[in-house]
Design goal:
The protein is mainly alpha-helical. The protein is 58% helix and 12% strand. Strands 1-2 form a two-stranded antiparallel sheet. A hairpin with a 5-residue loop joins strand 1 and strand 2.
Length: 128
């Protein structure tokens, strides 16, 4: 092969690699768009309200209640007792505190027909 032919093939390969890279980025964007297509839409103000409610619920939760934890103890090399693992076992109460705080921030409308889909954006706009 002559030098011009090799350069032409190298340029073609480089161009195709660039195109593949661009197509992969476009594919990822479209996959994300498809993933988001069926998600309900809420405004940033509603999301801020939800985040604030979650933060407040967690900040006010009683993490000092030792009955909610499962502790595994061990001895270290110097003979000292240490807590090897600490597991929060009663996550239901934490979840309930969070859900309760979030629900208090909104007027929740029940769908008239369970088979009908509620447009979340419309409901959120009514709330705001």
């Amino acid at each position: 092969m002559d030098k011009d032919n090799v350069e032409l093939i190298e340029a073609t390969v480089k161009g195709l690699q660039d195109k593949i890279g661009h197509l992969n980025m476009e594919l990822k964007d479209k996959q994300k768009e498809l993933e988001d297509a069926n998600k309900p839409v809420i405004s940033s103000e509603v999301m801020d309200t939800i985040n604030d409610a979650i933060n407040e619920a967690i900040e006010n939760y009683d993490f000092d209640n030792t009955d909610q934890y499962e502790l595994d103890f061990s001895l270290d090399y110097e003979g000292r007792v240490q807590a090897e693992t600490i597991n929060l076992t009663d996550t239901y109460e934490l979840m309930e505190a969070i859900v309760s705080k979030v629900e208090k921030q909104f007027k929740i409308e029940q769908a008239e027909d369970d088979n009908s889909q509620v447009n979340t954006q419309t409901v959120a706009e009514k709330i705001i």
